[in-house]
């Protein structure tokens, strides 16, 4: 028996890349899968039921159980229809993988309202809506697992992704809150920051030799390498794992840090702006984080 035997899992954004790999792995581990995907472009244009259906058909052809779903994660009603699909088809829901995503990259000072809202809607609102749609079922059955996709673009930083970075760091806060609020019901919530070559990373510009070399290194990071961690976190084997952030890159798994105080300074008579400038900041400056992006911090080649 596989680690997901008897369980029903919703995978959003399952039509390709990381989501497809997770959906196939969940089914291979014995899970029954709702493969959700709108089949739109990275910018949100068009809609095609084909990607979700192809993944569902692939699972069924391999002897598994799956159904395709094309509802949007970005609305309350759409998210509830996704979860209801699992209930209608398989009678229950045990895990949610919030993987659906889009990109509207633009430098912050050029980003418009639509580029901001469209990314927040899919990533952050989508993660909340789908998670919330499953929450009452998890609570009533006293068990369930959430697996959310975050990104080092949010955890560390990146160029031209203010919308994406804000959404992905917001997902970390959402996951922690879910873990705290639903621990009493034995519901777990964790994040994965995936490094993988997919349709989303295929949009990364590569005009200089350095950028082209970086892209070639990224192509070695297979999307399917993310799936084992997602299956583990959704399974009963992870019953004592919650509120964590894991980065997965090729054959590496990294446990990511979370915000904690680094240094504290105290002044008995209280602080003035001048005292802060003269004393507090110099005392803390050694622990300041430099202005880095993801590639500067995780700079070694994939293993």
TrEMBL record:
Enumerate the SMART domains for this protein.
PKS_KR
Signal peptide per UniProt: none
Matching SUPFAM superfamilies: NAD(P)-binding Rossmann-fold domains
The domain of life for this entry's organism is Bacteria
The record, for InterPro entries, names: KR_dom, NAD(P)-bd_dom_sf, Peroxisomal_Beta-Oxidation, Sc_DH/Rdtase_CS, SDR_fam
The record, for Gene3D superfamilies, names: NAD(P)-binding Rossmann-like Domain
Residues covered by the Ketoreductase domain: 7-203
Hey, which family's this protein in?
Answer: Belongs to the short-chain dehydrogenases/reductases (SDR) family.
Name by which UniProt lists this protein: SDR family NAD(P)-dependent oxidoreductase
This chain's source organism reads Zeimonas arvi
